Amino acid sequence: MIREHPAKGALILEPIPPYREVIPLVEQHHEWFNGEGYPLGLAGEAISLGARILAVADVYDALLSDRPYRPGWESHRVLAYIEERAGHQFDPAVVEAFLTICGDAVPA
Q: Looking at domain 2-102, does it have CATH number 3.30.70.100?
């Protein structure tokens, strides 16, 4: 069921004209740069740039935030996690840009 949420999110947005442009981002944000993601199994630049950016931001927020089942991670640990997955889960160029923007702004 969890793997269905990107497609369901896209279906929810489909009838709302102002959101049509973001449907690919919603639908593709769990695709992995190496093709191992879901729901479509897209890889590399077949994933929209916006979805590749959203994938990094989504994981950053998810790991940094407290959850009912675990406390949020420290920022340096989250950034290291994202950096380690560049080229596998995340677009390396997006990770590089994210680390340039966020890396200096987040205290270790």
A: no
Q: Whole-angstrom Cα distance, residue 29 to residue 39?
A: 9
In the chain, where the domains are located? 2-102
Q: Count the alpha carbons within 13 Å of 68 in the hemisphere toward its beta carbon.
A: 0
Contact between residue 64 and residue 75 where contact means Cβ atoms under 8 Å apart: yes
Grade residue 103 by pLDDT with cuts at 50, 70 and 90: low
21: buried, middle or exposed (CB in 10 Å: 19+, 13-18, 0-12)? exposed
Per-residue pLDDT at 105: 56
pLDDT one-digit tens code per residue, 26-62? 999 999 999 999 999 999 999 999 999 999 999 999 9
